């Protein structure tokens, strides 16, 4: 099959719409990593993503009769724009089924490129099922976003360009994985021409369908996926892409949201361009690999695969980038409620910059302080805990706590003696007009909401934390509500930050 893919990639028709993107040194990152890091700038394509390569190659290889009848695709973003642009270039009709939760920016981008948008369902899976239904009803050809040889070959032209642009030794190429089309095409080409080069996939920790599939030896369908890196939020990888990854991919690295945000910042500082979360995964993976392996003087290549970022998301990215670089730490500190304690606490912080400082009187003996501090690295964070403890201040490090980073640092109010039988849960739900109130109204009228925090992150999903007063005898009913709700949730009732400041 490899020889077939080599031929398919070498003869792929992509350059009617795609450009050969630059392979650029990231100077600041290279210096920090003590290795040469090159970025393959697929974010510079006309649709700000690599996706038009595979989509166009698939359509360009259709028979004239099939092409005349038109094409259909399901997508919430980059693939949709690639299909729309390719169809316009080839003079055919393109219907794109998108979830109703898709931001208007992406809907408008597809329409601007000649696509007919049909909004259906809350998720990609809903849109996909409806697109396959319309495919049959209207006699259209479905353009799969990743699990198709022509699509895979189109993406593989990126590898062809890389090996032509850089003919010296390459230690590894890092590639983001969603459904697997991009890494399959790149791996199929590189392993035939330069088999000594490592091909390393990168997935979010909460959307690792390919890693789990490779470990299991068969395709695994995830019950749910994290939505931050929406470009790779795929619950099940392709059949053909799984086969190719089994054969050619050396390793898969998982990165979290904070590391991804830090990588977005890194790319901006080196290029003054802003990549989307999925577009930054490969960079985050390369950084993590270097730290783990301790290599120096090698050449690493990361695919900056997309830049379709909603502007409103930048606030969240900026907040979390500091955690990804371990430049901010958050602590809950207990100090005596006595004169002079606050001064002693300030002296223990020294000349470091504060990013957050919250205090509310709650106890006659002990004061609870919530504090954020700028740091240089994890070692300094540990030293701060030691410094607080040496002063007799009990300290909890909340830097890695998701409830704290998402919600608690933005909340006020403190404890309440009225919050009896309170449970605390975090939820994620598709962001759309009215979604928040729909969520609230779905709860039993017998339960009182005792705490609520929602903050718009400019993303395709909403994040809330809810305090709910549920009598012990109604816990079975509460669990039944959670099971039928259909949203991802986390029980935070025993979270130490909640206990310290709100519980």
Task: Give a short summary of the structure.
The chain is built from 20 helices and 18 strands. With 503 residues, the protein is an alpha/beta fold.
Tags for this entry?
Rossmann fold; 21% strand; six-stranded mixed beta sheet; 20 helices; Alpha-Beta Plaits; alpha/beta; 503 residues; four-stranded parallel beta sheet
Explain what the structure shows:
The protein has 4 domains: 2-50 and 149-322, 3-Layer(aba) Sandwich (Rossmann fold), CATH 3.40.50; 56-142, Rossmann fold (3-Layer(aba) Sandwich), CATH 3.40.50.1100; 326-400, 2-Layer Sandwich (Alpha-Beta Plaits), CATH 3.30.70.260; 416-501, Alpha-Beta Plaits. 42% of the residues lie in helices and 21% in strands. The protein has 20 helices and 18 strands. It has helices at 2-10, 27-33, 51-60, 64-69, 78-90, 104-112, 124-138, 149-165, 181-193, 209-216, 239-248, 257-271, 277-293, 314-324, 341-349, 378-390, 402-406, 435-441, 475-485, 496-501; strands at 23-25, 36-41, 71-74, 94-98, 116-119, 141-142, 172-176, 198-204, 251-255, 299-304, 328-336, 354-359, 366-374, 394-397, 422-430, 448-454, 461-469, 488-491. The chain has a 6-stranded mixed sheet with strand order 1-2-10-7-8-9, with helices on both faces. Strands 5-4-3-6 form a 4-stranded parallel sheet, sandwiched between helices. It has a 4-stranded antiparallel sheet with strand order 12-13-11-14. Helix 1 (2-10) packs across helix 9. The longest helix has 17 residues, at 149-165. It is globular, with a radius of gyration of 25 Å. The termini are far apart. 47% of the residues are buried.
């Amino acid at each position: 099959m490899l020889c077939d893919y080599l031929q398919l990639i070498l003869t792929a028709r992509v350059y009617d719409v795609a450009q050969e993107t630059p392979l650029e040194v990231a100077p600041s990152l290279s210096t920090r990593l003590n290795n040469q890091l090159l970025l393959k700038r697929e974010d510079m394509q006309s649709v700000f993503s690599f996706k038009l390569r595979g989509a166009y190659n698939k359509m360009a290889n259709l028979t004239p009769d099939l092409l005349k009848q038109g094409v259909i695709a399901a997508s919430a973003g980059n693939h949709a724009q690639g299909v729309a642009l390719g169809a316009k270039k080839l003079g055919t009709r393109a219907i794109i089924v998108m979830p109703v939760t898709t931001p208007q920016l992406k809907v408008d981008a597809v329409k601007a490129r000649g696509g007919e948008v049909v909004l259906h369902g809350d998720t990609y899976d809903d849109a996909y099922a409806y697109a396959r239904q319309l495919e049959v009803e209207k006699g259209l050809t479905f353009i799969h976003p990743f699990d198709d040889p022509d699509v895979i070959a189109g993406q593989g032209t990126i590898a062809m360009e890389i090996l032509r642009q850089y003919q010296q030794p390459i230690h590894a190429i890092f590639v983001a994985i969603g459904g697997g089309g991009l890494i399959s095409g790149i791996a199929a080409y590189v392993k035939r021409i330069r088999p000594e080069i490592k091909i390393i996939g990168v997935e979010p920790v909460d959307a690792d369908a390919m890693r789990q599939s490779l470990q299991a030896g068969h395709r695994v369908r995830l019950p749910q996926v994290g939505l931050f890196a929406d470009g790779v939020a795929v619950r099940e990888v392709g059949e053909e892409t799984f086969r190719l990854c089994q054969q050619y991919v050396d390793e898969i690295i998982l990165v979290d949201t904070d590391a991804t945000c830090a990588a977005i910042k890194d790319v901006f500082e080196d290029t003054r361009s802003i990549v989307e979360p999925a577009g930054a995964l490969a960079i985050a993976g390369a950084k993590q690999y270097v730290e783990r392996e301790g290599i120096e003087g090698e050449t690493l290549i990361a695919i900056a695969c997309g830049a379709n970022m909603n502007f409103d998301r930048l606030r969240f990215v900026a907040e979390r980038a500091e955690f990804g670089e371990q430049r901010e730490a958050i602590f809950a500190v207990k100090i005596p409620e006595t004169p002079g304690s606050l001064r002693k606490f300030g002296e223990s912080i020294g000349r470091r910059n504060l990013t957050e400082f919250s205090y509310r009187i709650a106890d006659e003996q002990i004061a609870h302080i919530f504090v954020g501090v700028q740091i240089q690295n994890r070692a300094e964070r540990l030293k701060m805990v030691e410094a607080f403890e040496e002063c007799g201040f009990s300290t909890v490090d909340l830097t890695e706590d998701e409830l704290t980073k998402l919600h608690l640092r933005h909340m006020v109010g403190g404890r309440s003696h009225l919050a009896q039988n309170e449970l605390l849960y975090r939820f994620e739900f598709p962001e759309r007009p009215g979604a928040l109130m729909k969520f609230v109204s779905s709860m039993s009228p017998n339960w009182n909401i005792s705490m609520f925090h929602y903050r718009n992150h400019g993303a395709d999903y909403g994040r809330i934390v809810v305090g709910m007063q549920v009598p012990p005898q109604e816990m079975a009913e509460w669990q039944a509500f959670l099971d039928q709700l259909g949203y991802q949730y986390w029980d935070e009732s025993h979270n130490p930050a909640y206990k310290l400041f709100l519980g």
